[in-house]
Specification:
about 250 residues, alpha+beta, two-stranded antiparallel sheet, two-stranded antiparallel ribbon, 12 helices, about 55% helix
Length: about 250
């Protein structure tokens, strides 16, 4: 197995360029654009073909490297509207994934057929995203992961086996993140699904907007160029901004 290309943090001009590119892309591609920016020697097509579990591990590592060790999210209680905050430690999430050691494919024999199912990739999700009906999109995704052509005569026979969906769910257990939130006001409990790719894209976009605001303020007061300000660490920019506000 070849070593994984190095990853660097999304900061400065790299962060701005990645978010600028991702803004106009399909939501499924945005997390890959962030990864491609942080791993410039890695082939983008290879990122498209990564199993979702492997993609999410890379995204969690990128999050820890770029924005810190804790994912923090906010939600409103669906019953009373009270704001709630939740946190997920990246290191603990990565340890949980490593402990489960989820396989990327599974094979079994059933109904007189040898079946082989693999984890879905971003390329699979993109191909099925254009399917208008959700139920048909799921069937198309299962068929792709089974390696069955949509025009194959035994597609329905294979895809409709209950074991196929059961194996699919087990293969993707590492890619399904759920948080149980309990409202401090009305004690209502709800389960929130956390899309790691979308979550990190939102964080990156927020960080890019903050950086642009810092650049605007510092450039107005000091006359420095955008690249010069973007190259400063966040701590250094904060120090200059504090001086301006003193």
């Amino acid at each position: 197995m070849s070593p994984r290309p190095p990853m660097h943090a999304l900061t400065g001009e790299c962060l701005l360029a990645a978010c600028e590119q991702a803004q106009g892309e399909h939501p499924l591609l945005r997390p890959l654009t962030l990864l491609a920016a942080a791993m410039p020697t890695h082939d983008r097509q290879a990122l498209l073909e990564l199993p979702l579990g492997a993609r999410d591990r890379l995204l969690l590592e990128l999050r820890r490297l770029s924005f810190g060790p804790t994912l923090r999210g906010y939600a409103s209680c669906p019953q009373c509207g009270t704001g709630m905050e939740f946190g997920l430690e990246v290191a603990e999430a990565l340890q949980t994934i490593a402990a489960t050691d989820q396989p990327t494919s599974v094979g079994w024999h059933e109904a007189g057929m040898d079946l082989q199912l693999r984890q879905a990739t971003t390329a699979d999700l993109l191909a099925c995203a254009r399917t208008p009906m959700p139920a048909q999109a799921v069937r198309s995704l299962l068929a792709r992961c089974l390696g069955v052509s949509a025009s194959s005569v035994d597609t329905d026979q294979r895809v409709d086996l209950p074991s196929v969906r059961a194996h699919f769910d087990r293969l993707h257990a590492d890619s399904e993140w759920r948080c149980v939130l309990r409202c401090p006001q009305c004690t209502h409990e709800d389960i929130w699904n956390l899309d790691i790719g979308d979550f990190i894209w939102i964080e990156a976009r927020h960080a890019a907007r903050r950086l642009l605001t810092d650049i605007h303020t510092l450039a107005m007061h000091y006359g420095w160029s955008e690249p010069a300000i973007a190259a400063l660490s966040q701590q250094r920019r904060d120090a200059y901004l504090e001086l301006l506000g003193a």
